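Help needed: design a sequence for this.
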């Protein structure tokens, strides 16, 4: 543990590494978000650049400042100089959910982009309430859930929804993607110091820029950059002040029935994910107050939606990665400040045209690798099977999204083709849907149950099985929607498992005592 008698430093050299790593992570997510709003939903530019992005930037700035303040307080209280602020930003999984599950259907039915925007903000409002009040039970959830179960769940998310897409896109433009990935690996895993102390993330982006624009001059693959797009993006420069959108938020409640179907399970998802990330930070040496972290996500998200932002805020996976790079407190505030400037001035379209995204993606893959590794290095070796098991529901959820996207591109769906037809082709779609439904909760239940079995904790194993039964019955896991008696068959199976453990638990204890 590194201690200092002086007041905590707001900026250290390692913050440069974390700034370019975390900053580019946020930038990639912001560029993707902008693309979804403009091209997937076809929202008008004045709504995207004039209302949504400035509100998103404001929310992110408030979030990063708050978590930097928490880190400063922890550093001052403990006298340590190695405390790293929790990373935060808009939730990436929820970004796709709110766009494709909430906003897109409503826009398709109403033909109104404003109505879709309002529904998205109302959805965030509901989730914010769950986080604010759920923050008070988060410490209890963290206390009863094994660390390996929470870290294993994060590993599943990081491998599937953080690492896979960057890896796939990198190999499609390998001269940029793979070379930049090697630069990142050498700098952040191999300890290589580049000239003049330039952070590895910045070196990777610079090399990607040189290759992309140099290749464009000679007619090679350029990674999606465009001079024409840059010209039109310059025209979008302006000054867009975040404005209150309270009336729009409450207008979105006309779609309350649609919103509740996903707001409740994803609100619980947020609660568990934030708790997992607090545990991840604790495993890396920084113990933050769970209630204040989770509730802060809700408060910041509430402020964001009231200003026009339809995306939920979340503590990010990745704290150990930014800390390993040398990040401490300053990187968080500066990242939030830069994002606010980019969104208020309308610079995002220009960056989208100038920087090859494939040069940034290796940083996301690095974070996915680091979080996946942490689940094993910070858990007892005997619990490794539980960590592997925690990955499986997320793999199913990710595979289902790929199948759904492919079928949609072919103007069909699993319902049209039929599950039997897909099964004959080797695609077990029904299994993917059941296992991937509520993946984060399923991972915690399965891993927690397995750890209890490994550690011979009969009561704990029964508890996890009973919770699995309740969640299945309500559709929070293994179901397509929340309701009553959604997955009765699976709920009964979990009950049978709890009975099995109850009947065999005594024999296990007697056997252990005999061996002793």
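Sure. Designed sequence:
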């Amino acid at each position: 543990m590194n201690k200092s008698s002086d007041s905590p430093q707001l900026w250290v050299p390692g913050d440069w590494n974390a700034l370019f790593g975390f900053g580019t992570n946020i930038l990639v997510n912001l560029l993707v978000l902008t693309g979804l709003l403009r091209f997937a939903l076809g929202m008008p530019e004045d709504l995207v650049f004039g209302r949504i992005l400035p509100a998103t930037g404001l929310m992110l700035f408030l979030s990063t400042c708050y978590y930097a303040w928490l880190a400063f307080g922890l550093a001052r209280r403990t006298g340590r100089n190695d405390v790293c602020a929790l990373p935060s930003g808009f939730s990436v999984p929820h970004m796709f959910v709110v766009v494709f599950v909430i906003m897109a259907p409503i826009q398709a039915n109403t033909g109104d982009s404003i109505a879709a925007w309002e529904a998205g903000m109302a959805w965030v409002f509901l989730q914010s309430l769950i986080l604010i009040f759920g923050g008070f039970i988060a410490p209890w959830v963290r206390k009863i859930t094994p660390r390996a179960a929470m870290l294993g769940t994060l590993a599943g998310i990081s491998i599937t929804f953080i690492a896979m897409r960057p890896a796939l896109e990198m190999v499609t433009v390998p001269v940029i993607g793979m070379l930049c990935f090697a630069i990142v690996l050498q700098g952040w895993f191999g300890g290589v110091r580049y000239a003049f102390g330039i952070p590895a993330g910045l070196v990777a982006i610079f090399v990607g820029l040189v290759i992309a624009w140099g290749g464009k001059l000679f007619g090679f693959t350029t990674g999606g950059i465009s001079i024409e797009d840059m010209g039109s993006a310059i025209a979008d420069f302006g000054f867009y002040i975040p404005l209150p959108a309270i009336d729009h938020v409450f207008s979105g409640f006309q779609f309350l029935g649609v919103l509740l179907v996903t707001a409740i399970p994803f609100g619980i998802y947020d609660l568990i994910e934030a708790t997992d990330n607090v545990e991840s930070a604790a495993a890396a040496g920084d113990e933050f107050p769970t209630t204040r972290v989770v509730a802060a996500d809700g408060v910041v998200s509430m402020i964001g939606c009231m200003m026009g932002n339809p995306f939920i805020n979340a503590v990010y996976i990745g704290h150990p990665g930014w800390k390993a790079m040398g990040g401490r407190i300053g990187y968080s505030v500066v990242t939030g400040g830069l994002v606010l400037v980019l969104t208020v001035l309308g610079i995002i379209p220009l960056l989208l045209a100038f920087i090859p995204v494939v040069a940034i993606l290796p940083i996301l893959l690095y974070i996915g690798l680091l979080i996946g590794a942490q689940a094993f290095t910070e858990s007892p070796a005997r619990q490794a099977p539980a960590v592997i098991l925690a990955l499986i529901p997320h793999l199913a959820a990710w595979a289902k999204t790929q199948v759904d996207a492919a079928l949609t591109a072919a103007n069909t769906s699993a319902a049209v083709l039929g599950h039997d037809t897909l099964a004959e082709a080797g695609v077990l779609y029904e299994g993917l849907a059941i296992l991937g439904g509520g993946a984060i909760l399923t991972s915690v239940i399965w891993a927690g149950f397995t750890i209890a079995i490994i550690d011979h904790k009969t009561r704990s194993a029964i508890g996890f099985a009973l919770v699995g039964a309740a969640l299945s019955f309500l559709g929070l896991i293994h179901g397509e929607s929340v309701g009553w008696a959604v997955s009765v068959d699976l709920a009964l199976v979990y009950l049978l498992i709890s009975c099995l453990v109850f009947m065999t638990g005594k024999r296990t204890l007697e056997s252990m005592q005999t061996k002793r």
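The radius of gyration is 23 Å.
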